[in-house]
Amino acid sequence: MIIKNNNNGYFIDNVNKIWEVPVNSDHMNILKEIPWFKYLTLPFERNWNGIELFLWANNNYYFAHIVCIIYALFIYFGPKIMEKQKPFKLEKPLKYWNLFLALFSCIGTLRLMPYVLTNLIKYGFVSSICSPPIAPLTKGPAGLWLSLFIYSKYIELIDTFFIIARKKSLSFLHWFHHLTVLLYTWDAYVCCQTIGVFFCAINYFVHSIMYFYYYLSSCGKRPKWGMIITILQIVQMIIGTILTTSGMYYSYKHPFSNVFPVEYLSQPLKVGCHFIKTNGVFACLMYVSYFALFFDFFIKRYITKGIPLVEWVTANKKPAKRE
């Protein structure tokens, strides 16, 4: 059975078949869950139908892998090509690039965060991480800005171009983060990972601050609160790990049903917890590695200030008191 319709609404047996449900169904409209949200959004956002973008990702799953291979080749050969070249003067384009991403992330935060917080308050934690992600994957403001988030990960690879073209140091953290985030978000989008909307909202929020910081820095006014961004990134990784492990736990304890309603569920465990385990394992590995990398960056940048940790500990070790 693919689709069943009765007096209680539409039912499907696979989240990936949501496009077979009439798009004018109230069950697929996020504004049904947050009526006041319409006053904060534009008409084209409220009328958005993102089925085509979702279908394109499903039909072109390996597109992300191809792009990542090209990206990896650029990381390897780009610096070699630039060795005998003068660095490009891209200060002005970089400034506007950072401003664009800051504004984009800010708007994304204002569109997705109300959805996430309202569902947490209205339905609770378990419902928020276990209900099939029908509404945000299909139509309305959440659907638009979730889709834009996924596709923006391709555009953000341009960050690396600015680094290599200007002959700046390219860190492992930078390219590893960009590459794995693209692969993960694309997979989460295609397999309809429930907690993906959480990750998008949090990432939008952190990036809105981070790219604004980069914008100010590119204007020659480097702020003194760079540490706050790194702390937010570390907290983001901790939250991501908690959400992922919680989803894994509930998905094993409450296996997902074959048929479920096309709506946000107040008691999702009656049909099981919708959580894609393979994507969850990827997320756990990703968040743990990010935590280690960002924590290491925090220690080296703000604590030891570039001094090897052993030397820093030795230099700051207090002499024992003589009795």
TrEMBL record:
Entry's family note: Belongs to the ELO family.
Catalytic reactions on record: an acyl-CoA + malonyl-CoA + H(+) = a 3-oxoacyl-CoA + CO2 + CoA
Gene Ontology CC annotations of this record: endoplasmic reticulum membrane
Main localization, broad class: membrane
Membrane topology label: Multi-pass membrane protein
EC number: 2.3.1.-
TM helices/strands, residue ranges: 61-78, 99-117, 142-165, 172-189, 195-216, 228-252, 280-299
Keywords from the UniProt entry: Fatty acid biosynthesis, Fatty acid metabolism, Lipid biosynthesis, Lipid metabolism, Membrane, Transferase, Transmembrane, Transmembrane helix
The protein's enzyme class: transferase
Subcellular location: Membrane
Any one Pfam family match given in the protein's UniProt record, by short name: ELO
Protein name per its UniProtKB record: Elongation of fatty acids protein
GO biological process, one term: fatty acid elongation, polyunsaturated fatty acid
GO molecular function annotations of the record: fatty acid elongase activity
InterPro entries per UniProt: ELO_CS, ELO_fam
